[in-house]
Amino acid sequence: MVDVVVAELDREGHPGVTATHAFALEAIDDGAQSASELGRSLGVSRQAAAKTIAALEELHYLDRQDDPGDARRKRLLVTARGREMMTIGARTFDALRTQAAEQVGIRALENFEEVLAILGGKSDSREASTRSS
User: From the centroid of its chain, how far is CA 120?
Assistant: First the structure.
């Protein structure tokens, strides 16, 4: 499914996007404001998160702006281009999920998502299922 979403993003003018980029933008949009916070959210090192931030900035999906409350910090802001990429990715994933539900039934799909959440170490499998829908 990820490969299909990435290919669709490429077709719609967003080449070079990875699943990590999309997950990172979502985490930043949800409030991650530093490499450390992003790393915790993604389950990666601060250094890996910093590289992801730099890549997102280079792809024009993310801006860093001065934090009005703390001159030592930079705020991370998802750009309009980043929001467009997130919208296309979510729309494509939702269509794929709907197609999968039509093939195997919604109950089987939800059970499968729950198993994946458990195997992935998610403590609340319902939250994982909801986030993917």
Answer: 16
